[in-house]
Design brief:
Belongs to the zinc-containing alcohol dehydrogenase family. Helices cover about 25% and strands about 30% of the residues. The radius of gyration is 20 Å and the shape is globular. β12, α5 and β13 form a beta-alpha-beta unit. It has about 350 residues and is α/β, with parallel strands linked by helices. Bound molecules: NADP nicotinamide-adenine-dinucleotide phosphate and zinc ion (2 copies). The site of NADP nicotinamide-adenine-dinucleotide phosphate (NAP) has 31 residues, from α1, α4 and α5.
């Protein structure tokens, strides 16, 4: 086993602190990755604070991982030492259910092995004696089929957030065929939201940001948004009723879905990707105008690779603030206050022991 420095949440109520984990030597079909950067997703906060229940502690969060392959198992065909790769929200799945066979591993009927706050598999089955540890650590051992290629040309720190924020916004935009001149609204301009703006623009849409932070107007327009509406202004919902073909809702906190559905045109679609506590939904919000409300969960391996290649081709990358791991607890507080433009990314060198002279 490889003793590996990490940071963990000891419980739902304590700050993250240094923690040592063990990574395994790569098996025949596995690779060992030195982690260079790891993005900080709002889901890390939800899980470290047990907002969704069932969290497993101690927890080493982190599922926006990029790094370098440093060792490969003897039967690995896809990767070699020195390759620049990514690991997203899951590291394994059953591989034989309908979802897995469709390349939609995130919906594995036996449950995916999430990158942290979940379990590795033994003989294909989730093994409760083997918790997964995420990217707030210096290395990770992963099956070769659950690793992504990070294309050249995307700076690595700016590539990390694509592994969750990127795919989570790319997937629904593609599924609902968002394209040229579609009127798209992105609700919530955080890590996911800012990727939604960039990706929808790259697909040719006319993009409006709906934000509860009026101070984000200039930077939203600088990101490429065509318009910005402050939802603090209650008139916005009446003035812009029926305006949008598609709404991507990335908000992490409770808000009124019915109000946003009112902004959709007839037969328009609103996709929820933000995961706040349960909210009331009125049937009338959907019935009047035959509107569609749906949700979306990250994306499968094949689509995640497609997204990374799309980003390289279109010059899309996350806007990041790089931090050392010792700033992680402050970064969580700042994210909760909406004070990040637009993704914190950990420089994982800050977790490594200084080299002996
Ligand atoms: P984030 O960077 O913290 O952004 C969330 C944004 O929500 C904020 O920037 C803010 O935007 C808005 N917001 C926050 N509090 C609000 C409030 N009280 N009222 C209205 N708007 C508020 O978080 P993130 O990493 O993008 O994640 C967003 C959500 O998506 C989280 O719930 C996360 O767990 C979830 N998620 C889902 C998936 C999936 O597969 N479905 C994947 C990753 C993350 P404004 O300041 O512009 O209003
Ligand atoms: Zn995430
Ligand atoms: Zn499966």
């Amino acid at each position: 086993m490889l003793k590996t420095p990490a940071w963990a949440a000891p419980s739902a109520t304590e700050p993250l602190a240094p923690f040592a984990i063990e990574r395994r030597e790569p098996g025949p079909h596995e690779v060992l990755i030195d982690i260079r950067y790891c993005g900080v997703c709002h889901s890390d906060i939800h899980q470290a604070r047990d907002d969704w229940g069932g969290s497993i502690f101690p927890m080493v969060p982190g599922h926006e991982i990029v790094g370098t392959v440093v060792k490969v198992g003897n039967q690995v065909e896809r990767w070699k030492e020195g390759d620049t790769v990514g690991v997203g929200c899951f590291v394994d799945s059953c591989r034989h259910c309908e979802a897995c066979l469709d390349g939609e591993e995130q919906f594995c009927s036996e449950g995916m092995s999430v990158t942290y706050n979940g379990y590795e598999r033994t003989d294909g089955k989730l093994d409760k004696s083997r918790p997964t540890w995420g990217g707030y650590s210096t290395r990770i051992t992963v099956d070769e089929n659950y690793v992504l290629r990070v294309p050249e040309g995307i700076p690595l720190d700016r590539a990390a957030p694509l592994l969750c924020a990127g795919i989570t916004t790319y997937s629904p935009l593609r599924r609902y065929d968002v394209g040229k001149d579609d009127k798209v609204a992105v609700v919530g301009l955080g890590g996911l939201g800012h990727m939604g703006v960039k990706l929808a623009k790259a697909m040719g849409a006319h993009v409006t940001v709906l934000s509860h932070s009026p101070g984000k107007r200039d930077s939203a327009l600088a990101l490429g948004a065509d318009d910005f509406l402050s939802t603090r202004d209650e008139d916005v919902f009446a003035q812009h009723a029926g305006r949008f073909d598609f709404i991507l809702d990335t908000v992490s906190a409770a808000h009124d879905y019915n109000a946003y559905l009112g902004l959709l045109r007839r037969d328009g679609t609103m996709v929820l990707v933000g995961l706040p506590e349960p909210q009331a939904l009125s049937a009338g919000s959907l019935i009047r105008g035959r509107k569609r409300l749906t949700g979306s969960l990250i994306g499968g391996i094949r689509e995640t690779q497609e997204m990374l290649d799309f980003c390289a081709e279109h010059g899309v990358a996350a806007d990041v603030e790089v931090i050392g791991i010792e700033q992680i607890n402050e970064a969580y507080e700042r994210m909760l206050r909406g004070d990040v433009r637009y993704r914190f990314v950990i420089d994982n060198d800050s977790l490594r022991e200084p080299e002996a002279a």
